[in-house]
Amino acid sequence: MIDHMGIAVSDIDRSRKFYEAALRPLGMSVQMEATPEQTENGSTALGFGVPGEKIFWIADKSKVGDGLHVAFRADRLEQVDQFYEQAMKAGGRDNGRPDPRPNYGPNYYAAFVYDPDGANIEAVCYAEA
Q1: pLDDT one digit per residue (tens) for the chain, 129 residues
Q2: Per the structure, how many domains does the chain have?
Q3: Quick one: signal sequence residues (predicted)?
Q4: Which residues span the domain enclosing 121?
C-alpha cells in the first residue's frame, strides 16, 4: 500500500492548475499547502487527496524526474473519462485515451496523460463495464 508519493514540478502554479482539474473527477483536491519556510529544501509543496489524507504531493525546487508514472484509482468508469477530459483541457498531452486494457488485467479501464512536465499520469478503474 502506498501512503503517499511526491513528484518535482518545474512550475508549481501551472502544475497546481493541472492537478486540480485532472484530479477533481476522482474526488481529490489540495488538502495541505506547505510554504518554503515550512519545507526542508525551501520548496512550495501541495498535498492532494481527500479530507484527512494527503497521498499525492507536488513540489518545486527539485529536479524533475524522467520516466515517472503515477496511477490513481477511480471508482467508476466515468471518472476515468472525466480525468482524461479535464487533464487534456488543463494542458496535458495524450498518452492513451480512456479504454479497456485487457492486456493489463481483467476489468482494467484506464486513461493516460503526460502532465506539464512529462510525467505519465494514469486513472484506472477495475469496475465491470
Answers
A1: 467 898 999 999 999 999 999 999 999 999 999 999 998 789 899 999 999 888 999 999 887 876 688 999 999 999 999 999 999 999 999 999 999 999 888 899 999 999 999 999 999 999 987
A2: 1
A3: none
A4: 5-61+68-125
- List all residues 6 or more positions away from 54 whose beta carbon is below 8 Å from its beta carbon: 4, 31, 32, 47, 48
Q: How far apart are CA 41 and CA 34, in angstroms?
A: 11
**The pTM is what?**
0.79
Amino acid at 63: K
Number of Cβ within 10 Å of residue 124's Cβ equals: 20
H/E stretch holding 84 reads helix 77-89
Residues 6 or more apart whose Cβ sits within 8 Å of residue 106: none
> Do the Cβ atoms of 32 and 83 come closer than 8 Å?
no
Cell digits for 125?
Answer: 478503474
Neighbours of 47 (CB within 10 A): 18
